Amino acid sequence: MHIVKEAKTFETISTEVLVVGVSKHREQMQDWASFSSFYGESLDSWVSAGDVSTKLKNITKLPFLKDHATLKRILFVGLDELKNLTEGDVRAAFALVGKELRTLKVKEYSIWLESFTTDTITVADVAFLAGEGAGLGYYSIPHYKTTSNETDKRIDAIHLVTTADDLDEVVASIEVGVIYADAVNEARSLINLPPNLLTATDLANYAQSLAVEYDFEVEILDKAQLEELGMGGILCVNQGSHEEPRLITLKYKATEDFEDPIGLVGKGVTYDTGGYSLKPKDSMVGMKGDMGGAAAVLGAMKIIGELRPNKNVVAVIGSTDNMVSGTAFKPDDVITTYSGKTVEVLNTDAEGRLVLADATTYAKQQGATSLIDVATLTGGVITALGMDKTGALSNDDEFFAAFMEATQETDEFVWRMPLTENDKKRIRKSDIADLNNSPGRDGHMIFGGGFVGEFVGDTPWIHLDIAGTSDAIAVHDLGPKGGTGVMVRTLANFVQRLGENNKDI
């Protein structure tokens, strides 16, 4: 996307659409009188009468009434009271703008940045939120309908109407916002791909393409190599499939010596039948998205590759599908993980934690001094927290507190659950193995994440269960139903913050 690096005035707008924020108290808005005069004398009376809505996130579409070389319509975005406006509100408002621009088939548009500013939200903040929000809202799910002749839609250029002194900072901010949106949208598209079009090999090929584009160090381990290493967690899940598994590693080297990298670990189960602990038919639909954790990690790595933060990162993804066949693993099996720990399998539908056990161990072996694993792991997190909250576990309060600061900036809701010694005892309860993979339905989210924690040791660690938040069952402010790309922005933001603070946790 092209960001026009020349500040426009109202008179020199060169696009068909201008986006303008409108508050309930317009006297608090910078230069509203100038814009009102530019638009026409009737504007204030229309706002007062409610014909132009000031209700938060309401969009009013009006034609431009005067003669102008290019400008044809204004999208007025309701901001309600500026004192209550949050960055999350602005992001969501621009996402709704993005949806409207897509409906209008607009590929270039202008934003009056100052109309969205407050005492706490600067022009640069607005620029970032506009680039990110509109990009997220403009996204649509790729489809395979033969009857559609609609060409691919995307925003080609954004023009800025602003009086900002530091235009370079503003342009840089909107460019970063666009980078964030593009990465989330790529993660969404991965999640939305049908499972016959996204195998473990396909996911590895995508990771390979990121490595080439961003000069990451890359390693892709195939089935024979996993067998040689003894990665029994991934291999047992893969036993029922004719598709080979892959263990994907990407390294972003901010420093030559690769000291203190943070490990990002993703569950990449490209389809989950539940294995012999077979899912009901209705629960199986949508399991193409069981690689949402892998998509989140890959999306974050795309942002990291673009922005080059001063923090080393090792990303590890274990990828396979979980199928049923004569060779599939089954309840009562005992497997040996890469760490050497043995596991009694009580539930083949608790497969993601087995994949993560090996991937997490490998990330530590690759030098990770802190870890975040991301997975669509349990239905239990949905029962506990609903569809709109990501559940978390952690063994390190300081590490988790720093991570939560990143979530506040991205507005992705995360809630920490307890992991007690009693929980750990139940995970370790087995007459024949070191661990069992399914202690019970009660506290299921905690047991799932806690199982992964058995392979972490003392390394600062956060587990993120995105089973509820990775897939939207309906249209929402930031996008369509389907894959959300949740945690892409937060993971990348957290790595950026660590780099900016030169902070090793």
Explain what you see.
The chain is elongated, with a radius of gyration of 24 Å. A hairpin with a 5-residue loop joins strand 11 and strand 12 (342-344). The two termini are 36 Å apart. Helix content is 37%, strand content 19%. It contains 16 helices and 19 strands. Helix 5 runs antiparallel to helix 10 and helix 10 (292-307) crosses helix 16 (488-501). It has 505 residues and is α/β, with parallel strands linked by helices. The mean pLDDT is 95. The strands form four sheets. An eight-stranded mixed β-sheet has the order 7-8-10-9-13-17-14-15, sandwiched between helices. A six-stranded mixed β-sheet has the order 1-6-5-2-4-3. It has a three-stranded mixed β-sheet with strand order 11-12-16, covered by helices on one side.
The overall pLDDT average reads 95
Query: What is the global morphology?
Result: elongated
What composes the largest sheet? 8 strands, mixed
Count of helix runs: 16
Sheet with the most strands: spatial strand order: 7-8-10-9-13-17-14-15
Q: State the helical fraction.
A: 25-40%
Proportion of residues in extended strands = 15-25%
Count of β-strands: 19
Unreliable residue stretches: none
